[in-house]
Amino acid sequence: MALVPYVETAEMGLQRFHKPLATFSFANHTIQIRQDWKQLGVAAVVWDAAVVLATYLEMGTVELRGCSAVELGAGTGLVGIVAALLALP
């Protein structure tokens, strides 16, 4: 495990977390998530892991139709939104 301190002026691609809106396309829908790093910190941005998991769900490996799910500790909720869209008939 590595701990990398966040430096706001760093050139590591973290600037996208400061954009007020993140836009994604999943399950034939455009999803826009408001982000607010300054006010709410790490829970208020869409992390790469959420995008990877949402992509995995969209691949159809896991059947979601007719299922219930609870999303815990998922920040902005992108994965839960995608799962709900995929579960629609």
Give an overview in words.
- InterPro entries: Methyltransf_16, SAM-dependent_MTases_sf.
- It is found in: Cytoplasm.
- Its main location: cytoplasm.
- Pfam families: Methyltransf_16.
- Belongs to the methyltransferase superfamily. METTL21 family.
- The chain has 89 residues and is α+β, with helices and mostly antiparallel strands.
- It has one domain.
- The chain is 28% helix and 13% strand.
- It has 3 helices and 2 strands, in the order ββααα.
- A two-stranded antiparallel sheet has the order 1-2.
- A hairpin with a 2-residue loop joins strand 1 (21-26) and strand 2.
- Helix 2 (48-58) packs parallel to helix 3.
- The longest helix is centred in the middle third of the chain and has 11 residues, at 48-58.
- It is elongated and about 40 Å long.
- The mean pLDDT is 82.
Termini separation: 41 Å
Widest beta sheet: strand line-up = 1-2
Structural class: alpha+beta
The sequence of SSEs as H and E is EEHHH
Model regions low in confidence, pLDDT < 50 over at least 5 residues: none
Query: How many helical elements?
Result: 3
Strand content: 5-15%
**Overall 3D shape:** elongated
Overall helicity: 25-40%
The major β-sheet equals: 2 strands, antiparallel
The total number of structural domains is 1
* Rg calculated over all Cα atoms: 15 Å
Q: pLDDT average, as an integer?
A: 82
Work out the number of β strands: 2
InterPro entries: Methyltransf_16 (IPR019410), SAM-dependent_MTases_sf (IPR029063)
GO molecular function, one term: methyltransferase activity
Keywords: Cytoplasm, Membrane, Methyltransferase, S-adenosyl-L-methionine, Transferase, Transmembrane, Transmembrane helix
Transmembrane segments: 40-57, 69-88
